[in-house]
């Protein structure tokens, strides 16, 4: 028991600080890399401004166009389900809100625990579905790298350990809670160096896309 | 030209990495949705044609040289290197199986502009000596003769004579101070001479002053298709010089998709300065004339017509409504293909694919997507406004024994002009 308590305290203390530091510095570097590269001046006469279309694409690209949805419904729906499930569990579970409040002072109402546990279960199933899809769909199989599987495993571990901790399915409790926190920290550490960066950079990418098409008069 | 080497190729790849490229590669989650937008993947079923995979050489260069993590990995020799063998293998992926239609750029959930990155990658491919023979030959001909097909002014002069004889109208040549400088494409001059006659009639009808230039009549840009900025810039400079010499305020790009994106969007950036004139696609000009009431038509086409939007015109240049306004002017039974406008499907021949003889089987495979779209609405004729698309539609429909003639929109408008008294 005391060993697991020490482990939990380590994940909440020194390890948490290390993870936050690597995440923050790594992400800052990645974003700086993008903006310092910048874009060359565009001499072609624009049909429209860049900001409006860029900002619109940042939002609208979240939803697939009807044709793409018809051609890849599984990809689209499962992607949506697990992203929403993950975000709900992350942002609307009481202990998570308490953590965010202790760090930032901001807080908001939580969803009832049974709802979060249901959402988490659905997320786990959806994540397994994405893995099966990745390993079987010819395109995904062909383009997948070790990183894709590592990132999948870490994200899955975060959700799974959270779910196990909630149901107290592992004894002692501090051990499973510590595992949950540690896996979340590993995710934070990997974030700036893997495709997890998309959590932030997708909005930059979408803006560039929307701006490039927008100045030519097309809302992408 | 000095020797093309892997080192030069890598330097060219590096020179293409900018903020958007870094944002795009940082964001890819390998979801594979881009494949669902690619006619080359969809119609062959071969996952190697997944758009994001075609960009792997550029991605490797970005990761190794433009990211902290890549540099750390490099210290331990963990980066995947771009090799000559790799680029040889990727030549087919970056040229034969991509028309730069930009559909993948419209559907990528994280917002990656993949077509832009294909265009950039081709710069590296050329410098590394891995561009297709067909495109190299077209580029050399374009630089040496002014036309990617080796066509000379004397051929055009013969056509001008034909047009003047059959229409009884003058085709203005080297007329200083005209409102418009009209550019043509070699493909059009050879395959669709009716285009020149059509604009001659329409401009006479609308009272537009225009001119051709003996100094430069070619609008297409082989440098952009192969991916060489130096060649592309030289070809753009010829147009600029001709327009400046004739002091025209406006330049018209012909019924050709890539010629328009080349001169309209890439051109000023290739030469590093804005133009002293404006650039329009012929369809934009015709729609402006229509809106101003300067085109009077009579009679309507009564058969069932559908329309193919050229990628370069619609999705990549925002000319979408204009061709519909013109269709409605002369066609009473116009039916849209299901996915059209900015979400249209490529004919399969653009982006240099049609100049690359080796790519013929892939070009025909990609056409099957268009064919399926056409079968869905079952038109009696197809209308389009790009000579490359038109040739591909004609060849493709014939290949599949579908008796659907293809017509150019400009010609169709010319056929309905009210005769002058």
From TrEMBL, chain A:
Signal peptide: none annotated. InterPro entries: NarG-like_sf. This is Nitrate reductase gamma subunit. The chain crosses the membrane at residues 15-37, 77-98, 110-129, 149-167. It comes from Thiocapsa roseopersicina. Keywords: Membrane, Transmembrane, Transmembrane helix. Gene3D superfamilies: Transmembrane di-heme cytochromes, Chain C. It comes from the Bacteria. SUPFAM superfamilies: Respiratory nitrate reductase 1 gamma chain. The keyword Membrane applies.
Automatic annotation (TrEMBL), chain B:
The keyword Transcription regulation does not apply. It comes from Thiocapsa roseopersicina. GO terms for molecular function: 4 iron, 4 sulfur cluster binding; metal ion binding; oxidoreductase activity. The keyword Transport applies. Residues 19-48, 89-119 form the 4Fe-4S ferredoxin-type domain. Gene3D superfamilies: Alpha-helical ferredoxin. It comes from the Bacteria. Keywords: 4Fe-4S, Electron transport, Iron, Iron-sulfur, Metal-binding, Transport. It holds the Pfam family Fer4_8. InterPro entries: 4Fe4S_Fe-S-bd (IPR017896), 4Fe4S_Fe_S_CS (IPR017900), Cys_rich_dom (IPR004017), Helical_ferredxn (IPR009051). PROSITE patterns: 4FE4S_FER_1, 4FE4S_FER_2. This is Fe-S oxidoreductase.
